[in-house]
């Protein structure tokens, strides 16, 4: 598997409160981000992954690329919903974070989740794509929620950045499948390696991208951590209710 430094851009805009993807766009996206981060760290133990949020007062870098999956998972609950997503600025910030990666032998990749209307123009996105390509940064796009509205813009961006089929897009319309289930069989997670991540035949994927049979302690620790955080959030929301 390739040696990569990856920045994941999360869409935490108000649009992600929408419940058209169960249970919400945001929670479904969070599960998918867990999957991507777990897959990348399992593909190569020297891969590093970072996370940023694209909405709010500014683009928020939650964690710069690290090989520690525990730190990555711990950063996710810090993402709060609010405001409009600035995907253009988010990807530019991710590119800057990758430029300062510690291991310069790592190839650079950005995985951007897009769950709200894109404010940037096609021209701006095309310029962004060309700049990424010039600096050898690959880009994976996961479009959900506003798939049709964003399709033309994302295609323009992908065509500008794509080099030797190193960048990909997955469009996930509303349906019975979770975002993470669709990504399990995509090249974004499988990296075009045949059997790919999640077991032969593309069966059920492992939670957090960790095979419990290989590392039961880590899988259990991550599961407990997420369950505790969800319980805390539910308690907080319950306490805030009138």
TrEMBL record:
Segments forming domain VWFA: 5-188
InterPro entries documented for this protein: PSMD4, UIM_dom, VWF_A, vWFA_dom_sf
Keywords: Proteasome
GO biological process, one term: proteasome-mediated ubiquitin-dependent protein catabolic process
Protein transport is among the record's keywords: no
GO cellular component entries: cytosol; nucleus; proteasome regulatory particle, base subcomplex
GO molecular function: polyubiquitin modification-dependent protein binding
Any Pfam family matching the protein: VWA_2
Stated family: Belongs to the proteasome subunit S5A family.
Record's protein name: VWFA domain-containing protein
Organism this protein belongs to: Zooxanthella nutricula
Taxon lineage: Eukaryota, Sar, Alveolata, Dinophyceae, Peridiniales
């Amino acid at each position: 598997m390739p040696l990569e430094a990856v920045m994941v851009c999360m869409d935490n805009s108000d649009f992600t409160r929408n419940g058209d993807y169960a249970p919400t766009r945001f929670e479904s996206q969070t599960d998918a981000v867990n999957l991507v981060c777990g897959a990348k760290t399992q593909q190569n133990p020297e891969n590093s992954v970072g996370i940023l949020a694209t909405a709010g007062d500014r683009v928020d870098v939650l964690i710069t690329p690290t090989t520690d999956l525990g730190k990555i998972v711990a950063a996710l609950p810090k993402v709060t919903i609010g405001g409009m997503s600035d995907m253009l600025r988010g990807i530019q910030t991710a590119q800057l974070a990758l430029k300062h990666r510690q291991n310069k032998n790592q190839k650079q990749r950005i995985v951007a989740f897009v769950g709200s209307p894109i404010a940037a123009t096609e021209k701006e996105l095309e310029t962004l794509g060309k700049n990424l390509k010039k600096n050898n940064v690959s880009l994976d796009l996961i479009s959900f929620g506003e798939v049709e509205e964003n399709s033309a813009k994302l295609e323009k961006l992908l065509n500008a950045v794509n080099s030797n089929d190193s960048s990909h897009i997955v469009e996930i319309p509303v349906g019975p499948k979770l975002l993470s289930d669709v990504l399990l069989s995509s090249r974004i997670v499988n990296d075009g390696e045949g059997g790919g991540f999640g077991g032969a035949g593309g069966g059920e994927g492992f939670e957090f991208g960790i095979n419990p049979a290989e590392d039961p302690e880590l899988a259990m620790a991550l599961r407990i951590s997420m369950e505790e955080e969800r319980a805390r959030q539910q308690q907080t929301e319950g306490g805030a209710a009138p």
